[in-house]
Amino acid sequence: MIGKTIAELRVGDAAEVAKTVSESDIYLYAGITGDFNPAHIDEEYAKGTFFKTRIAHGMLLAGFISTVVGNRLPGPGTIYVKQELNFLAPVHMGDTITARVEVTEMIVEKNRIKLKTTCVNQDDTTVLDGEALVSPPKAPKQDG
């Protein structure tokens, strides 16, 4: 199964996924990436920071955007070209984050689409926003 091709997409199309961030998510992300910044994994250290407690890695949230792009819109077969991110608020363990993408522009001749990308928490606070440029999958070639 492939995702939506450029012919199947329209400006305004959107999709989202929601995920509650757990302590395990943060530790697994740290282990996979090697990012052991104590702001994320050391509660005693984090108590002395501006946030007063551990926070999730910003790039973990960016991964939630990638989940929407790769699985929902445009979906399987999509290739990331570019992603701009603005980190607007901290995410804590137990926060439920909804990652959303929305088609804002179509560049048909280059098989590219621009997406507005956002993550909001359970209080409807935008914690991340940005813009992505992706190449949606191409239609399979027909035999004959």
TrEMBL record:
<dbReference type="GO" id="GO:0019171">
    <property type="term" value="F:(3R)-hydroxyacyl-[acyl-carrier-protein] dehydratase activity"/>
</dbReference>
<protein>
    <submittedName>
        <fullName>MaoC family dehydratase</fullName>
    </submittedName>
</protein>
<dbReference type="Pfam" id="PF01575">
    <property type="entry name" value="MaoC_dehydratas"/>
</dbReference>
<dbReference type="InterPro" id="IPR029069">
    <property type="entry name" value="HotDog_dom_sf"/>
</dbReference>
<dbReference type="GO" id="GO:0006633">
    <property type="term" value="P:fatty acid biosynthetic process"/>
</dbReference>
<dbReference type="InterPro" id="IPR002539">
    <property type="entry name" value="MaoC-like_dom"/>
</dbReference>
<feature type="domain" description="MaoC-like">
    <location>
        <begin position="16"/>
        <end position="118"/>
    </location>
</feature>
<keyword id="KW-0456">Lyase</keyword>
<dbReference type="InterPro" id="IPR050965">
    <property type="entry name" value="UPF0336/Enoyl-CoA_hydratase"/>
</dbReference>
